[in-house]
Design brief:
With about 240 residues, the protein is α/β, with parallel strands linked by helices. The chain is about 35% helix and about 20% strand. Strands 5-4-6-3-7 form a five-stranded parallel beta sheet, with helices on both faces. The radius of gyration is 17 Å and the shape is globular.
Length: about 240
C-alpha cells in the first residue's frame, strides 16, 4: 500500500472528569523526602520545557492507504509505539485525555506527573512487573471510552522488542485490532539510554507514520511496529 502524507493538526483538548480519572490513575508508592522534593519540582519544569520545545516543531502524518491517524479515530482504541519516541508524542498528543501506562517507579512517577500536566491520564502499572494490576486499570480506562497508549518495549526494554501487554489488553476488552505508530524527528539528540531516547532538536520536523492496524497477536504487532519505523526511515 502507498503511504500518504499530510500535515498533522493537533486535536482539540478532551475534558475528563477528575472523579472518573482517579478510579484507575491513583496508585502511587511511598517515596523518600528527597524524591518527593524532586517530584514537586521537576514535572512542572519538564512539562514547560516540552511545551516550549514542542512549539518549534512541525508534525507530518504519513499514513498507509485506508489508515487514519489514531487521534482522529473514534474511541475507545488501543495504540502502541516505541519508548524512544515518548517526548515528541507527549507534545503532539497533549490535551486529549489519552490514557498511557506508566511504570510505578520513581522514574515512572516523574514521567506520570509530567504527562498529566500535558493533559494525559497516567495509569500507574506495568506490562511486566505488576502487569495484571496495570492492565486491569487500562481496561477500565478503555471501557470508560479512552484511547489507551502503551510503549511496546517499556518500561526498560529490550529496546524495540514488543512485550505482550497490548495484546493482553486487547484480549481483555475484545479489541479486534491494535493501532501502531512511530514518531521520528528528522533531527534529534540521541541519548545513551537503554532505548536510545530521542530528543527532537528545535525547529525540526517530526514524522508520524501510521501503518495498517495490527491484529492482536505479538508476532504481527512486532512486525507492524518495525514497518512503522521503516515507513519513517524511507520517507
Amino acid at each position: 500500500m502507498t503511504p500518504q502524507s499530510s500535515a498533522a493538526k493537533p486535536s482539540s483538548p478532551t475534558a475528563f472528569p477528575r472523579r472518573v480519572r482517579q478510579r484507575y490513575t491513583r496508585s502511587v508508592p511511598p517515596f523518600s523526602r528527597q524524591q518527593r522534593l524532586l517530584l514537586a519540582l521537576l514535572p512542572p519544569a519538564a512539562s514547560l520545557l516540552i511545551r516550549l520545545l514542542g512549539s518549534t516543531l512541525r508534525y507530518r502524518n504519513i499514513t498507509e492507504a485506508g489508515t487514519i491517524p489514531g487521534d482522529l479515530l473514534p474511541r475507545p482504541a488501543i495504540f502502541v509505539f516505541w519508548h524512544r519516541s515518548l517526548l515528541a508524542c507527549a507534545h503532539r498528543f497533549r490535551g486529549q485525555g489519552i490514557a498511557i501506562l506508566i511504570s510505578p517507579s520513581f522514574d515512572g512517577e516523574l514521567i506520570a506527573r509530567t504527562v498529566e500536566r500535558l493533559g494525559f491520564q497516567a495509569v500507574r502499572g506495568s506490562s511486566s512487573r505488576d502487569g495484571v494490576s496495570g492492565l486491569r486499570k487500562l481496561e477500565r480506562a478503555y471501557r470508560s471510552g479512552l484511547l489507551c497508549a502503551i510503549t511496546a518495549d517499556g518500561p526498560r526494554g529490550p529496546s524495540m522488542v514488543a512485550k505482550p501487554g497490548a495484546t493482553q489488553l486487547a484480549a481483555l476488552v475484545g479489541a479486534a485490532s491494535i493501532g501502531v505508530f512511530h514518531a521520528r524527528p528528522t533531527r534529534a539528540w540521541i541519548l545513551h539510554s537503554w532505548d536510545r531516547f530521542l530528543i527532537p532538536k528545535p525547529f525540526s520536523e517530526v514524522l508520524l507514520t501510521w501503518p495498517t492496524h495490527s491484529t492482536p497477536d505479538l508476532p504481527c504487532l512486532q512486525a507492524t511496529l518495525e514497518h512503522a519505523v521503516t515507513m519513517a526511515d524511507t520517507t
